[in-house]
Design goal:
The chain has 998 residues and is of the alpha+beta class. 47% of the residues lie in helices and 17% in strands. It contains 34 helices and 28 strands.
């Protein structure tokens, strides 16, 4: 919205950005004269960011993306959109502030609008490039990508460059208050649609319908060959130009649906390799030219200011100021810093009180109450050689002289200490405590230098690395500034509040009541306070519309909102009721995944045409509402486009198209995976003894398994996999049972997520997860530490949850399932090693153990039932029985007796024995009791409750046997016979529990 101001035309906006960035040190260049998918691909970015030369540049880049073709119908999506690209090399230290200044130059009122930096971890496999940064949202619409490049062309960048990529059409739609790109005023009296509408329609026709596949295939091969030839001639610039032509031609073929899985992998590998070679050759050529633009100097390390004198006890305040952290890093960093400070302080002698660590997206704040002025003094005694070795004839020996010299004392200054009755010479020296300023200055510097996240980046600092740049440090001990120096950062006495505040940088004079100080500046430091504000604000606005917020169901999203703003300000928006004709799951997925909106529901749980979003601090609600409504309208138009297109394609056709999607290079396509799941589900269904109707449902759902992954809706919104399968299957005439099974195949979606309710759905869900776990272990892609890219742990937890909660699957053993899944892979030609399956089974066992432990069950009881990890539902029942009986006289007697039996049996098992040697009354009684129990347990051998019920005579016989019989008889034959009898007894109970664990 233009807020009553005269909005810029698009050409004026371009001129304004050129002037702004030129004034801020950028050279203005022209767009590339070949198609690129983004300004990033232009050599002015992709090549120039490599190497040590400084390079600040800005340029317009028409960016061509065939897959975004919409015939000009979608308000926001175009096959050719206009980017404005800025590269700042090196990072100037304040790139966010410079960027926000450019928005103000364009006429964006930062106090009225909600401008936010939202996590974006950018990567381009084709370019061999990656970086960390943000999407910049203007009232909910992504208008800019903001990235700190870390690597390009496989080359690690030093210095790091900042990339700012504006989406001009989106910015101008907001500034001009129009809802469709065609209505943008491009120049006075001329709209965007009048100039480019025909281009959008005709190029969309070309990319989606009319591009000749064979011609483009030949072009791809020719361009790749020419790129190769240029590299052989050591000409990186033309080589890279032809890589770009390859990339565009590939995108045309992809939009035409002409790229198979094999071709995709081959093409990406080819383009990535050519790009890497071009990048490295570029770096070599610039070095050979002795870097004509110069070499960027390394930022200097700072030195710490003199330490202050302090007295009495005071509160420590230490703030680590950062650019916007990813939401998951806010609580994670809070805990990591709390642990670091606590551990490091405990290693000192400095007295202190409570340690508190709180965080927002832009700051991590440590407060320590009651910090004493200095450490306690201490006396340190260092022990030397024994007295007997220290003196000879009353004179110091070389051993004593060496010890005294090493301690810097005269030999006469040593004294003796006695340790365990032995006298040693020793030196005791007083160690005065360090001042609090000295202790804390060093300690806090270590905390900052030790910051780490799951993904770390570099910026213009010579040594630091973290999730996002650390830009300031605030350190006070009471009212005294505390000098802290880390790499190129020195602490001060200021903090940064909202960038839109009249004074974005404010002085802090005291460590006390800092949370209140920040609240006065519109920042809620306490996470729970922010969380409560989100819930309260959402509920109030939903109630005004006659609706409600599903707070429990939206708990994960509420947590995310809590950690992406410093002051949540709720705004309610509305959308056209005609969009309610789309499946509710589509609408709410768009809200949650793309926009972080909370859906508003009526009293019956139906979606209402309202949503609640949160701005970061106060804003003009009407401006922010209108912007977010426009964004959602465009998103829903896209969803409607996908919906209409998908309904024209039969599920069977989508299923055939899975052959074009890669699952994993070594494990084949998604079609291969769907085939394996279908076959495995049938095998498991037969073993479980499902009804004929259920088996028929499994068979038909298996024939369509995963078909929706080829649909446009699921390609765009991957979280709707299964949901759309059910929707599309129903509309294609499939039975309700088949449609339900297709949806439930994707359940559970998380550790505590909803589970299948139908037997057929549960079988397909189990087969899906068994296939994934088995496949990843077969190829060695096992989860390690925090790395689990294929979600193997989540799949293991999912299959356990299904098995533990679906009675129809009681007959399925995990080991059998893993082997059956492995057979499918072997039939596909994948080599399967038995030890890999054992490793997979062990992972699942450990997950089951963790589930039971987390549920609060006693450790030894959990260990005892882990023999049933192969059948976790039976393990649950056994654990429940065990918890009912453990501690009772009958059970304790049984456990004690069986453990006597188990302990005496050899580890390697018992060999053949002559049972006729068992003639003693105690031996015969035990054999008779064991046989009676065996017969009583027939058909329920694995039931612990039944064993306990019939065990009393067996327990008595065991005790008499050990009292009257010498098991380890000197005669080997007799000994073997008695051990064989005990092994018979142990086998009766071995199938129920691991008795040793008790």
């Amino acid at each position: 919205m233009n807020n009553g101001q005269t909005a810029l035309t698009m050409q004026d906006a371009i001129l304004t950005l050129q002037k702004y960035w030129s004034h801020n040190g950028c050279m203005i260049t022209q767009p590339l004269n070949t198609e690129v998918g983004a300004g990033t691909a232009n050599p002015s970015t992709a090549l120039r960011v490599i190497g040590p030369e400084p390079w600040s540049v800005a340029y317009v880049e028409p960016s061509v993306r065939p897959d975004d073709s919409r015939y000009g119908e979608n308000p926001n999506r175009l096959q050719t959109h206009t980017q404005f690209q800025v590269i700042l090399k090196p990072d100037p230290g304040n790139p966010q502030e410079l960027y926000l200044g450019s928005l103000e130059a364009l006429g964006v009122d930062l106090r009225a609008h909600d401008v936010r930096f939202v996590e974006d971890n950018w990567a381009s496999p084709a370019l061999g490039a990656w970086g960390l940064g943000w999407e910049v949202w203007l009232d909910g619409m992504e208008i800019t990508q903001f990235t700190y490049f870390q690597q390009v062309g496989g080359v690690t960048l030093s210095p790091v460059s900042v990339e700012i990529t504006y989406g001009l059409e989106r910015i101008l739609m907001n500034l001009q208050g129009v809802s469709h790109f065609k209505d943008i005023v491009y120049a006075p009296g001329i709209t965007y649609g009048e100039v480019f509408g025909q281009n959008e329609y005709e190029m969309s026709r070309y990319y989606l319908d009319d591009a000749d596949v064979e011609t483009n295939q030949r072009l791809f091969e020719s361009y790749a060959a020419e790129a190769r030839r240029m590299l052989d001639l050591e000409l990186p610039v033309p080589a890279y130009q032809y890589v770009l032509k390859c990339s565009h031609t590939f995108n045309v073929l992809d939009a035409r649906g002409a790229i198979s899985t094999t071709e995709r992998a081959k093409a990406f590998s080819l383009m990535r390799g050519l790009t890497h070679e071009s990048a490295k050759l570029w770096a070599q050529r610039r070095a050979a030219l002795e870097h004509p633009l110069g070499v960027t100097p390394t930022p200097a390390l700072v030195t710490r200011n003199p330490l202050p004198r302090v007295s009495g006890t005071d509160t420590l305040l230490f703030e680590i100021g950062v650019e916007e952290l990813p939401y998951a890093d806010v609580p994670a960093t809070t805990e990591a810093v709390r642990e670091s400070v606590t551990t490091k302080l405990a290693a000192t002698r400095l007295g202190h009180g409570t340690i508190t660590v709180r965080a927002t997206p832009r700051r991590v704040v440590v407060t320590v109450e009651g910090v004493e002025a200095r450490e306690r003094d201490t006396a340190k005694t260092v022990r030397g050689p024994k007295v007997a070795a220290a003196y000879r004839d009353g004179e110091p020996t070389p051993a004593l002289l060496g010890f005294a010299r090493s301690q810097g004392v005269d030999p006469a200054a040593v004294h003796t200490v006695e340790v365990n009755g032995v006298e040693y010479v020793a030196v005791t020296r007083e160690e005065p405590g360090r001042t609090a300023a000295e202790v804390l200055s060093e300690l806090l510097a270590e905390v900052v230098s030790g910051l780490r996240s799951t993904r770390n980046m570099r910026w213009n600092d010579p040594t630091l690395s973290f999730s996002r740049p650390v830009r300031w440090l605030l350190a006070l001990l009471g009212r005294t500034p505390l000098p802290v120096a880390v790499s190129a950062l020195a602490s001060g006495t200021t903090t940064r509040v909202h960038r839109t505040a009249p004074e974005p940088v404010v002085q802090v004079t005291s460590a006390d009541a800092y949370a209140n100080f920040l609240q006065m500046h519109g920042i809620l430091l306490d996470r729970q306070t922010r969380h409560d504000a989100v819930v309260r604000g959402a509920r109030e606005l939903a109630a005004e519309a006659g609706g409600r917020i599903d707070v429990d169901g939206e708990a994960a999203l509420i947590d995310e909102i809590t950690d992406i703003v410093e002051h949540p300000h709720p705004v309610r928006g509305t959308f056209d009721e005609r969009y309610l004709d789309l499946p509710a799951s589509v609408l709410t997925t768009v809200m949650r995944k793309h926009q972080r909106y909370l859906p508003v529901l009526d009293g019956d749980g139906r979606l209402m045409p309202h949503f609640v979003t949160f701005a970061n601090g106060t804003c003009d609600d009407d401006v922010v509402r209108a912007g977010n409504e426009a964004v959602l309208r465009a998103r829903y138009e896209d969803a409607a486009f996908f919906w209409r297109a998908d309904l024209k394609v039969a599920p069977e056709e989508f299923r055939r198209q899975l052959d074009k999607l890669t699952f994993e290079d070594r494990l084949g396509t998604v079609a291969d995976r769907a085939d394996r799941i279908a076959a495995l589900a049938l095998v498991l269904a037969e073993r479980a003894g499902l009804t004929q109707d259920a088996v028929a449902t499994v068979r038909r759902a298996g024939e369509l398994a995963k078909f929706d992954l080829a649909s446009q809706m699921v390609v765009e919104f991957s979280g709707l996999a299964g949901v759309m399968a059910e929707e599309y299957a129903r509309r294609a005439g499939e039975s309700a049972e088949v449609a339900q099974a297709l949806a439930e195949m994707e359940l559970p979606r998380s550790a505590g997520g909803a589970l299948p309710t139908s037997d057929a759905g549960a079988m397909l869900s189990l087969a899906d997860r068994l296939d994934l776990v088995t496949g990843m272990f077969v190829i060695g892609a096992v989860p390690t530490g925090s790395s689990d890219p294929y979600g193997v742990r989540r799949a293991a937890i999912g299959l356990l949850n299904v098995l533990r909660n679906m009675p129809a699957l009681a007959g399925v053993r995990l080991g059998d399932g893993l082997r059956a899944a492995a057979e499918r892979y072997a039939a596909q030609g994948v080599e399967v090693h038995e030890e890999r399956l054992a490793e997979a089974a062990e992972l699942i066992t450990r997950r089951y153990e963790q589930q039971l432990t987390d549920a609060g069950h006693e450790h030894r009881l959990v260990q005892a039932v882990l023999v049933w990890a192969d059948r976790p539902a039976h393990g649950d029942r056994t654990l429940a029985t065990l918890e009912r009986h453990v501690g009772s006289e009958a059970f304790d007697a049984l456990a004690a007796a069986l453990q006597r039996v188990v302990r005496i049996l050899p580890e390697g098992g018992v060999g053949a024995a002559d049972r006729s040697l068992l003639t003693a009354p105690a031996e015969l009684r035990l054999a008779e009791s064991a046989e009676a129990v065996r017969q009583a347990l027939h058909g329920r051998e694995d039931d612990l409750a039944s064993l306990i019920e019939v065990s009393a005579p067996l327990v008595a016989a065991i005790n008499v046997f050990f009292d009257e019989v010498l098991v380890m008889d000197p005669e080997p034959a007799v000994r073997e016979a008695r051990l064989a009898l005990l092994d018979d007894v142990a086998r009766l109970a071995r199938t129920t529990l691991d008795w040793k664990a008790l």
